[in-house]
Amino acid sequence: NVMISLLFAGSNLVSIALGFGFAIAALAYSIGPISGGHMNPAVSFSFLLIGKLDPFSTIAYIVSQCLGAIVGAAALYLCVSNQTDICAGELKEGALLSSNICKGPRIKDADGVPGDWGPPFGLFANVAKDGMNGFFIEMIGTALLIFVVLMTAVSSKGAKSSGNAAPIAVGWAVMLAHLVMVPFTGCGINPARVLGPLVVDSFAGLNCWNKHSWVFFVAPFVGSCLVVGIFAVFETPDKESKAVEEVVKTETGTGLTDAEVA
C-alpha cells in the first residue's frame, strides 16, 4: 500500500492507514477461526503472558509470522523492482540504488542533520541519536493495538459485547496507529512486518540496518508487557463466568475447564 501510494498519488497518509487497517481486519476475519489471526509477534507474546499460548506454540507462531513477512516483502520486491523513480521529496536523490528498492527517509541526528538512510518501506526513527523518542512512540502504538486485541477478542466481558466485530476494532486500532505514527517512525508496531523488508533488502544488496532498528524489535514487546498488566485489572472473573466454569468442570468429570480439556 505504501508503494502504491508513492507510485500513483504521492505519499498519502490516509490511504496508507486505511490500507493497513482494512487489510488487518480482513485477514483477522479470514484466518482468525483457524489460528487466532495474530499476524504479529507482539500479539502472540501477549497471549503467552496471559496464558493463552504455551511457549512452544508462541515460538511457532512468531517464526511463522516472520517467515510470512519475508515472503511478503519478497513478493513486493518482485512487483516493484522495475520502478526507478517512486520516492518523493528528499528521497528521490540517491534513494533508489541498483536493486531499485525505495529506502526510508534519511535519519536526522539531534541537530537535525540528515544522516544514514533509514529502513525501507517508510520505516525509520526520525528522532534524536539515542532513538528513545521513537521507542516510546512504538511502545505506545503497540500497547494500543494489544489492548484492543485483548479487550475485544480475549476478555470475557469484551468478547461478549463485541461479538464477531473484534477484527473491525483491531483494524481501526491499526489504522489509528498509522495515522498518528507514520510521520514519526513510519509505524512499525509489528516486529515481523519490520523484519521482512529488512531481510529482503539485505539480500538485495542494501544495508538498511541502522542504529535505530532496535526500536522496532524491542518497543512492541515492552508495550505488550505493559498492556498485559492493565488487562489483568480489567479481566477479573465475574460471578457468572465463575459459575459457568464450575458447571463445565462438573459436566466433564475431569475437574478441568473446557479450554483445559482441549
Automatic annotation (TrEMBL):
Main location: membrane
UniProt keyword list: Cell membrane, Membrane, Transmembrane, Transmembrane helix, Transport
Subcellular location: Cell membrane
Spans traversing the lipid bilayer: 6-29, 59-78, 135-154, 166-192, 212-234
UniProt family annotation: Belongs to the MIP/aquaporin (TC 1.A.8) family.
PANTHER family membership: AQUAPORIN TRANSPORTER (PTHR19139), MIP17260P (PTHR19139:SF199)
Identification of the protein by name: Aquaporin
Species assigned in the record: Proboscia inermis
